[in-house]
Amino acid sequence: MRNKKTGHKIRRQHVIGDFITDFVCLSKKVIIEIDGKIHEFQKEKDNLRSIRLNNFGYAVIRFTNDEVLNAPSQVAQKIKDYLNNRQV
């Protein structure tokens, strides 16, 4: 997400409500979460967090650490496509 590979301004560790998001595109109201192994054991908590963030008007998309580390270009393309198609 560096160097605007997505074509959109993305902020890192931005506060929304009482949450600190990994990344957010404010203009498109999209939150991008990068989940480590711990998230395999807290899916219900993550789902509730996503619902609360949805209530603020944000869409939440998630990727695993493995996806980001092993296929960064594909992740960047998925984010770019999502942002380009998101209607706010």
List the helices and strands and how they pair.
Blueprint: E1 11-16, E2 19-25, E3 30-35, H1 43-55, E4 59-64, H2 65-70, H3 72-85
Parallel strand pairs: 3-4
Antiparallel strand pairs: 1-2, 2-3
Describe this entry's structure for a reader.
The protein is an alpha+beta fold and 88 residues long. The protein has one domain: Endonuclease, Chain A, CATH 3.40.960.10. It has helices spanning 43-55, 65-70, 72-85, and strands spanning 11-16, 19-25, 30-35, 59-64. A 4-stranded mixed beta sheet has the order 1-2-3-4, with helices on both faces. The chain is globular. The model has no long low-confidence stretch (mean pLDDT 89).
- Write the element-wise H/E pattern from the N-terminal end onward: EEEHEHH
Strand segment count: 4
How many separate helices? 3
Structural class label: alpha+beta
Q: At the fourth CATH level, what is the homologous superfamily?
A: VSR Endonuclease
Mean pLDDT over all positions: 89
Q: CATH fold name, please?
A: Endonuclease, Chain A
**What integer value in Å does the Rg equal?**
13 Å
What CATH architecture would you give?
3-Layer(aba) Sandwich
Largest sheet: 4 strands, mixed
User: Class in CATH?
Assistant: Alpha Beta
The end-to-end distance, rounded to whole angstroms, is 21 Å
- Spatial ordering of strands, largest sheet: 1-2-3-4
